[in-house]
Write a structure and sequence with these properties.
10 helices, alpha/beta, ATP-binding, 10 strands, 241 residues, four-stranded antiparallel beta sheet, binds adenosine-5'-triphosphate, Rossmann fold, six-stranded mixed beta sheet
Length: 241
């Protein structure tokens, strides 16, 4: 196998009296989508935030993180983002009072030409709604804006947290199709509860349970094995079409 784009080793996170991650180790392959899965509250978001240096100061974090072969443990977030680690948080984080165009403009980075062609090519709606305030967009449109903002700049890896959460089925399909197009070019670590989306997009899967990695391997193998899937993810057959 080629060198992983992200290499997480023995990551442990304690915060507010709870030991959320207890030695998490896994690698993200440099092509395609790796799905990060697990029951509610197992620490998927915590894993992304720990990699990105976004946990609260009070959190006790140990372990090592490598990005494209270089150690990035405890580097500040802005530096990681400049190195090409793109993050789309679960809450989307768009500025509700600003327009779509203003939200995008704020994401532009000095010294890098913003790639509006890619963003508007994937999400034509963002061009149409350039002057609309982000707070008045639908959930799906806000998600597109959050993803678009990250895609304005060059990325070597995308960390995307539950992009289809709370979206209508038609919009889920739309967002998944756009992410699939992006993943053909940039590798992605994707937290996603919708297993139909995981099945469609992910080549590899990592499952966290009880603070540790309980499965790494082909996403298809995990989703085909109903009993294991049920035990690890707390879902039944009907949930993973
Ligand atoms: N800053 C914090 N302080 C205290 N507890 C926290 C903090 N951040 C997360 N937790 C707790 O850590 C656990 C893991 O949270 P996390 O959001 O990482 O889980 P998750 O797997 O992403 O869950 P979900 O699927 O619900 O989004 C939860 O029990 C959460 O309440």
């Amino acid at each position: 196998m080629s060198q992983p784009i992200l290499d997480i080793s023995d990551l442990s996170v304690k915060v507010g009296g709870s030991h959320i991650l207890q030695g998490v180790t896994f690698a993200v392959q440099p092509q395609g989508v790796t799905a990060l899965l697990g029951r509610n509250g197992v620490g998927k978001t915590t894993t992304l935030k720990a990699v990105l240096g976004l946990m609260p100061r009070a959190a006790e974090i140990t372990g090592r993180v490598g990005f494209d072969g270089a150690a990035i443990t405890r580097q500040p977030t802005f530096r990681l983002v400049r190195q090409g680690l793109g993050y789309v948080p679960e809450d989307r984080g768009v500025f509700a009072g600003l327009t779509v165009a203003e939200n995008l403009r704020l994401a532009e980075r000095a010294g890098t030409a913003p790639d509006y062609d890619t963003v508007h090519g994937l999400f034509p709606e963002l061009r149409k709604r350039a002057r609309q305030r982000a707070g008045t967009l639908s959930g799906g449109q806000q998600q597109m804006l959050a993803i678009g903002r990250v895609l304005l700049n060059p990325n070597r890896l995308l960390l995307i947290d539950e992009p289809t959460k709370g979206l209508a089925p038609k919009v889920v399909t739309e967002v998944a199709a756009a992410l699939e197009a992006v993943a053909a070019v940039v590798p992605m670590l994707l937290v996603e509860q919708n297993l139909a989306v995981v099945r469609r997009m992910a080549r590899h899967a990592v499952v966290i349970a009880n603070g540790r990695v309980a499965y790494t391997g082909a996403a298809g193998d995990l989703l085909d094995y109903t009993e294991k899937t049920k035990a690890l993810l707390g879902v039944g057959k009907g949930d993973h079409a």
